[in-house]
Fold this protein.
Amino acid sequence: MKAPASIVCLMFTLVLAPGAHAEDPPAAPAAEATDDAPLINPQVVDKLIDMGNYLRSLPKFQVDAQVSRDTVLESGQKIKTESANTLKVVGHDRLYAKSEGDVRTREFFYNGKKLTQYSPYLKYYTTVDAPATVAETLHKVENFYGVQVPMEDLFLFGSDQAQIDALKAALYVGPSVIKGQLCDHLAFRQEGIDWQLWLTRSDKPLPCKLVITTTDDKSFPEYSAVYQWNLKPTIPDTQFTFKPGKGDVAIAFKKASDQGGQ
């Protein structure tokens, strides 16, 4: 299951009042999951947009995520695969990403001028000229080459009004602890997709966990990611430029149109 790029663009956060505890409700709850609550609370959407703006304002960060996803066989049986993912970003023009999983392992290097995708076990790499910013580069490689960089949706949170308008429900579920971090559990609904999000209760609104359920597939496959953030990482500039090693072979990026849209 591929996590749609439109899903994680919509996020929100609540702030824990001084002296509150994990079992206490938020000081100003937003649309708790009750029968008489509105399906979409404007306050929830506003907070969600604020979080996206905060993430895009970070001068640098590293986020690691343990990801699991369901693949549905022709028989209808679900097979779960796991991957460990890392994303490192400095400014708006440098990025390194790696996804190491059961199915495949890939690395991405972007230095403001070129983007390289590398398969360390296969020893293949491909490099293309890239736009001047991370956001433009991610847009190009996904739309032109059909390639998604791990956790690329972190650059899209709340940036597209059409994605916000696609929400059919946005509810507050309650407090939850993810890897020792107090978070608020939220539930959203879009056409064909239910998704749940856990966000930190702090002045730094960051996602703790994301679960996406595809509801227009009778098997209801899921995608799940648990995040860990470092907002003051030490990242050398050499991290963002790929240097081929012995045995590495350059190959060409295939356009999405040449891959049958896959």
About this structure: Residues 1-33 have pLDDT under 50 and may be disordered. The helical segments are 42-57, 134-145, 161-165.
